[in-house]
Amino acid sequence: MPLVAHNALPTFERLRRDGITVLSTERAARQEIRELHVGLLNMMPDAALEATERQFYRLVGESNPIAQFYMHPFTLPTLPRGDKAQAHIAQYYESFEAIREKGLDALIITGANVSHPNLADEPFWQPLIEVIDWAWDNVTSTLCSCLATHAVMQFRHGQTRVKQPAKIWGVFEHRVTDGRHPLVADVNTRFDVPHSRWNDVSRAQFETAGVKVLVESAEAGVHLAVSRDGLRTVFFQGHPEYDTVSLLKEYKRDLLLAAEGKLPAFPPFPVRYFDCQAQALLAEFGRRLQAGEALAFPEAQVLPRLDNTWHDTAEAVVGNWIGCVYQVTHRERGLPFMPGIDPDNPLGLA
Ligand SMILES: CC(C)(COP(=O)(O)OP(=O)(O)OC[C@H]1O[C@@H](n2cnc3c(N)ncnc32)[C@H](O)[C@@H]1OP(=O)(O)O)[C@@H](O)C(=O)NCCC(=O)NCCSC(=O)CCC(=O)O
Ligand SMILES: N[C@@H](CCO)C(=O)O
Predict the structure, then answer these.
(1) Looking at the CA of 148, which ligand is closest?
(2) How far apart are CA 211 and CA 208, in angstroms?
(3) Residue 88: its H or E element
(4) Residue 277's CB: how many other CB atoms inside 10 A?
């Protein structure tokens, strides 16, 4: 919730210059106080569907203890689903048509499982473009996670992601590259974010497209970037929403697949995620598995050894994002901007 500059204290002006939102008393008196409507286009595979809901609902909910959030989950009918996930979707999700009719203030688009080398061959490609095109004209800001970022960079900016020789996988250190941008104002200047991807869009590709990089890792590449206008599309390549356990679940999946001969090699450890003891436990498990022993994955022993070093900053960034959306969104949920807001520079950045 923003400060109100109800007197001439020079600190207010100084904070404004540092990217902190400070309202004038006139603006504060006129501000509409209402709930926000946030869409979640959940494209994750069945096993991760509900975990992903929880992760993004928590990030939005915890981003501000006072504002009220109505979440609107939906998915794309062309994604393959099993019976259980289909029933969950049928019972609890909304249709894109219904969401489009009422409108959204903000939209989050998750990552997805891909099975084709070219994203344009995926079953979700056309319907995803339809959602993104609608959101560009009608939603104040859209936050794209991982694969959704790659899709927008490909179809809107002609920048195709590049497959990496090794999976970018683990918990990586990042730095804020423009601390004055309101999306990263006042967050830690150095912080962790998990990544889990074979593909990368590079800083040069974002910049060629006119997209501004805000957070980057020397090892993992760009994590956070924003469209030229400063707000309307926010790009994540990492997974700040991940639970503490998420990378362990992925490691277990890949290890067990390798043991069944369904993956060519045993997975490496995700970077900076397992401590020495967890590594020793998992290496021992891998050895015994390869020797043909039938034994259970030591999840319960490893779990207490894992640390979460990214969630606070993830909340802070999502809080900044929601705050920016609130300041410029129209009082009517179906319209993206208040009168007087320039869609090409909604935050009025210099
Ligand atoms: C890794 C798995 C397979 C793990 O699921 P499993 O069902 O096998 O897990 P399990 O050990 O049987 O445990 C089930 C319990 O774990 C929870 N659970 C499942 N997945 C979870 C996750 N990711 N994070 C946190 N919890 C998770 C379930 O809700 C359930 O909890 P309860 O018992 O409490 O209900 C799944 O999470 C998954 O498919 N993840 C998707 C990974 C993925 O496809 N990412 C693509 C995005 S990456 C991208 O977009 C870019 C791609 C690129 O560029 O390469
Ligand atoms: N953007 C509006 C709030 C949402 O209706 C305002 O600042 O008054």
Answers:
(1) 1
(2) 7
(3) helix 83-92
(4) 11
The number of the ligand nearest the C-alpha atom of 334 reads 2
Sheet of 106-109, strands arranged across? 69-74, 36-41, 106-109, 141-145, 233-236, 221-226, 212-217, 162-176, 190-200
Are the CB atoms for 230 and 212 separated by under 8 Å?
A: yes
Token reading at 124? 């979700």
What interhelical angle do 83-92 and 46-63 show, nearest 10?
A: 30
**Whose CA is closest to atom 4 on ligand 2?**
331
- Residue of 72, 239, 311, 315 marked catalytic: 239
**Exposure class string for 331-340: b at 16+ Cβ within 10 A, else e:** eebeebebee
Amino acid at 62: E
The pTM is what?
A: 0.97
315 vs 321: CA distance, rounded Å = 10
Q: Tell me, what DSSP letter sits at residue 97?
A: H
ipTM: 0.93
Q: How many angstroms separate the CA atoms of 342 and 328, rounded?
A: 9
pLDDT digits 0-9 by tens, 104-143? 999 999 999 998 989 999 999 999 999 999 999 999 999 9
| Tokens standing for residue 146 | 């991982």
Q: What distance in Å separates the CA atoms of residue 266 and residue 328, rounded to the nearest whole number?
A: 49
Which tokens sit at 176?
Answer: 């804020």
| 81 vs 86: CA distance, rounded Å | 6
CB neighbourhood size of 136 (10 A): 16
Tens digits of residue pLDDT in 324-350: 999 999 999 999 999 999 999 999 998
The answer to whether the CB of 22 falls within 8 A of the CB of 28 is: no
